Amino acid sequence: MVRPGKSLLAASAAALLLLTASHVHAEDGISYNHAALLASSCFACHGTDGRMDEGITPIAGRSYDSLRAVLMAFRDDNVPNTTVMNRITAGYTDEELEAIALYFSGLSAESGGSR
Questions:
Q1: Backbone angles phi, psi at 89, to 5 degrees
Q2: Residues in domain Cytochrome c (predicted)?
C-alpha cells in the first residue's frame, strides 16, 4: 500500500521535473526559470514587473544591450554615485547578469511583468 504523503511527494517531484524540463532557455544557456529566479533579487526595489513607481528607475522593456551594459558597469563599479547597485551586482557572473537583462528586456514597459 502506498501512503498518501509519499504519493503526493512523488507527484510533486514529477511535476517539478516536467516544469523545469520544459522551460525556454536563454541564449546563454540559463533557463527562463533560472533567469526569473536571478531577477527576483531586483523585485524589492524595481517591483516584480520592473516598473516600481516610487523614484526607482524602471527597467522593464529596456533593451537587452542597455540593461546588460548598465548591469556590467554597476558590477565593475564604473557608475559614480550609485546607491547599492554596485554591491548587489558584485556577486553575479557575466552569464547571470545577461540572463537578468534578458528577463527584464522581455517584460512590457507599459503593462507589467506577466509572461
A1: -80, -10
A2: 1-108
What's the number of domains the chain is made of? Answer: 1
pLDDT in tens, 40-67: 999 999 998 898 877 888 999 999 999 9
Range of the domain at 71: 24-105
DSSP string, 21-79: HHSPBPTTS-BHHHHHHHHGGGHHHH-TTS--SSSSPP-TT--HHHHHHHHHHHHTT-S
**Is residue 86 one of the residues assigned to a domain?**
yes
Query: For residues 102 and 28, what is the distance between their CA atoms, to the nearest angstrom?
Result: 10
Which is nearest to 25 in space by CA: 93, 102, 101, 85? 102
Higher pLDDT, 12 or 88: 88
CATH of the domain at 36: 1.10.760.10
For residue 55, CA distances in Å to 39, 41, 45, 81, 89 come to 19, 18, 10, 16, 20
DSSP state of 107: S
Residue 83 — very low, low, confident or very high, per pLDDT cuts 50/70/90? confident
